[in-house]
Design a protein that fits this description.
Shape: flat
Order of helices and strands: HHH
Number of helices: 3
Low-confidence stretches: none
Structural class: mainly alpha
Number of strands: 0
Largest sheet: none
Distance between the termini: 24 Å
Radius of gyration: 16 Å
Length: 72
């Protein structure tokens, strides 16, 4: 699970949002709510989340290329 913000969002706002989300994920009730729907969220920094998204994008681009699909 990731939370996205618009391109150009100031780093301090991203850090504040990330901190608030990570703090919420430490709450047992929040964790329980996610668990009931089969989600196991992981805490990560904005940079770590960006790396995951970039890695996923590369994987999907490669699969689309192999399948001769054009991504618009």
């Amino acid at each position: 699970m990731s939370v996205a913000v618009p391109k150009g969002t100031p780093a301090e706002r991203i850090a504040k949002l990330n901190g608030a989300i990570n703090q919420a994920l430490k709450d047992p009730e929040v964790a329980k709510g996610f668990a009931t729907v089969g989600i196991a969220p992981e805490m990560a920094s904005g940079a770590e989340a960006t790396q995951v998204v970039q890695k996923d994008q590369q994987r999907w681009d490669e699969l689309a290329k192999k399948a001769n699909l054009a991504l618009d």
